[in-house]
Amino acid sequence: MRRSITTLAATALAAASVIIAAQPVTSLATADDQVFLVAEAFTYDEGDAVTATAAAASAASACEDTTYALKTWKVGTLNWLYNGDGVPANIASTALGAITTSTNTVAKGTNRCGLTNLTTSTYTYGGTTTLKPQVSATATCTGNDNKSVTGWGTLPAKVLAYTCTYYNAKGVVIASDTLIDNVAYTWFTTKPANCTGQQYDLETTLTHERLHTAGLGHVDQTNNATQTMTPASSPCDTSRRLLGAGDYAGLKALATK
After folding, report:
1. Neighbours of 251 (CB within 10 A)
2. What does the pLDDT read at residue 3?
3. CA dihedral sign of residues 75, 148, 134, 155
């Protein structure tokens, strides 16, 4: 089983689907008031040897590969909120901790390679909220309220999580909502013994999604299989919770944009 990301680019008024790379988007206003939207759907497809290769790859290869791909936005300071309504019962007490850990991993550049923590962006947890992520059950972005909410809900078949990120004309993120499917898939925060079937690691998934919010795109799933930003991953895989050398290098490059 593997997962892949389909990237969509759109204005806040109308979304147009594209494959892999976000296309130039049309602004909603002029000059510094312009707001842009990019959306990523975290999906999976049946069977592929690439994911087995990624799972078996050594830590050394993850730390030798410095490949990364940049998008056109980055995070300066982001205040994020959590809505636990609908969280699966088996992870109700641990989901927020896993999401917080993933967010901090990206904020600090925490990695598998012993590289020094980064201080290029600030992510602040603002507490729980009754606001919902502005993502529909049909995987579309429903508007920008300038709040960054992570929460749970129904998504289309094969979509594990969906993120809508808004950024301004200066390329700085102003809001980013993430909806995680709570119907079709089994999530874990601690890998079960003898993990089998369609069980997915919440921390791995959110680290990948937070890297999208931060401004990183996908790398090649075959040549860069050990990086967190590779678009394929197996169920039960926790090997990419922390960043590889390429993911880390990408965050450093974003800081100079």
Report:
1. 26
2. 47
3. positive
